[in-house]
Amino acid sequence: MCRECNDKENPLSRADYVSVDEMRNIQLTKLKKIVRHCYDNVPLTRLRMDEKGVKPEDIKTLEDMRFLPFMKKTDLRDEYPKGLFGVPMRDIVRFHCSSGTTGKPIVVGSTRGDLDVWIDGVVRSLVMDGITNEDILQVSYGYGLFTGGLGLHYGGEALGCAVVPTSGGNTDRQIMLMRDLGVTAIACTPSYFIHIMDEALKKGVDFRKETKLRHGIFGAEPWTDEIRAKIESVTGIEAHDIYGLTEVSGPGVASSCRCHSGLHVFEDHFYPEIINPDTLEPVPDGTWGELVFTTLDRFGTPMLRYRTRDITRIIPDRCDCGRTIRRIDRISARTDDMLIIRGVNVFPSQIEAGLMTVDKVLPHYHIYVDREGDLDTIEVKVEVTADALGDQIKSLELLRRTIAEAIKKIINISIKVTLVEPHSLPRSEGKMNRVTDNRKK
Ligand code: ADP
Ligand code: ZN
Asked: pLDDT of 372-399, one tens digit each?
């Protein structure tokens, strides 16, 4: 067992270590209850179950879940704002909205109990990361309708951390407070942390010497192991991965442990399945597919078999940390982000992985997709170190080619690479948009 992660004695983590049989029993009991709740209270779910000829009492085992209908983001949009609520308004204590890129946002209402379930996931994530009540936690996720800020805020407080609710933005002040208050952990998107890291370096602030920062709790957007390595080597902190989505609660649906090998799902609350997105059939453990969640004990906006559009797999073997709850692989792609370039599927994270293997490349890039005649074109603009740009034209050309080849090795198509100066590409204080697809204009 990994010594770092051994928090088996911590009562907050009890559910992470129960036997698989006990967990399946807990899940089945909760599943029967939530299916009944949906059938009785959510008209759309009732209609769909009736259409499929399935009644709540037909759910006798966890495998019977495959008879239940799926839910999708479009259902939340179609039923905007409260059509999928499962309780009367007097029981709802909070609204959250997902950022939603087009049209109306999606709205999720939570009961007091739903918030407790959510926060339980955040607390267990933080414990998994090695955070304790001794830590000072700066929450630099946006506060408000977005779940990142309030999720980490209440989770941090529940664990007993001293929370610094900076929200996103005002990067100079973030750095000042981090130093002055002796912040030991920060929670934000990985792209915002890279921005903070850059600004600190520009001011000559050495993270290792001038801050007490030890942990980063990063999520809300895809990021790669390569970026994680970069962050850790520049700052000396340990970078953790936290996953979640508004529809299912918020951050804290799954979290990496200190083995940094996938993310443990808090499956006593959020039951995971992986399906083949074309056939909609569940796939065996270890096979990649679309992640689907059933919220086992959230009643305000209950979700049965919610299709996340995130791509991952269930890691078949047990983690070295000793936890029994299942793991999913790092979520490096969502179907929404998939680009089809000359018939080939390309994910931005694959380009990122290629970029980050090359020396002198900075973690700032933007992808441009266009069409010339009938041909799709793809270009990545990437920042490289100032000394690289000062090199002879011949060395620059070599660097450009090395990058293009590193990417081609992964995605199998040629990509135009343009090297740009440090600090010339846009930065983000929240989720980063890394792609401009001019074909969609
Ligand atoms: P939106 O879908 O509008 O971005 P959310 O703010 O609820 O809404 O974001 C949830 C989505 O963010 C997830 O479905 C997933 O695609 C992405 N996400 C969240 N955490 C992570 C993570 N740790 N790694 C990769 N992607 C993540
Ligand atoms: Zn583990």
From this structure: 999 999 999 999 999 999 888 899 999 9
Which domains are seen in the chain, by residue range?
11-17+108-334 (3.40.50.12780), 338-440 (3.30.300.30)
Give pLDDT, residue 239: 98
The Cα 174–Cα 172 span in angstroms is: 5
Question: Which ligand 1 atom lies nearest to the CA of residue 242?
Answer: 23
Tokens coding 50: 């009736």
**Region class of 336: left (phi > 0), else alpha (psi between -120 and 50), else beta:** alpha
Which residues does residue 256 pair with via DSSP β-bridges, in sequence order? Answer: 263
Question: DSSP letter at 155?
Answer: H
**Distance from residue 114's CA to the centre of ligand 2 (Å):** 25
Tell me the three state secondary structure of residue 295.
strand
**Å from CA of 94 to ligand 1 middle:** 20
Compute the distance between CA of residue 377 and CA of residue 382 in angstroms, rounded to an integer. 16
Does residue 99 have a pLDDT over 70?
no
Instruction: Indicate which residue's Cα is closest to atom 11 of ligand 1.
Output: 245
Q: Is 270 in the pocket of ligand 1 (CB under 6 A)?
A: no
Taking all residues of the chain, what is their mean pLDDT, rounded to a whole number? 95
CA dist., res. 317 & res. 73, Å (int): 31
Q: Indicate which atom in ligand 1 lies nearest the CA of residue 218.
A: 23
In angstroms, the CA 184 to CA 197 distance is 15
Tell me the average pLDDT across 187-195: 97
Q: Encode pLDDT of 200-246 as tens digits.
A: 999 999 999 999 999 999 999 999 999 999 999 999 999 999 999 99
Q: H helices of 216-334, where?
A: 225-235
For residue 332, name the pLDDT band (cuts at 50, 70, 90): confident
- Helix and strand numbers, DSSP H then E, in the chain: 12, 21
Q: What is the whole-number distance in angstroms between the Cα of residue 337 and the centre of ligand 1? A: 11
Residues 99, 238: Cα–Cα separation, whole Å: 28
- Tokens for 418, please give them: 């343009």
Ligand nearest to the CA of 322: 2
What is the CA angle 293-295-299, rounded to 5? 150
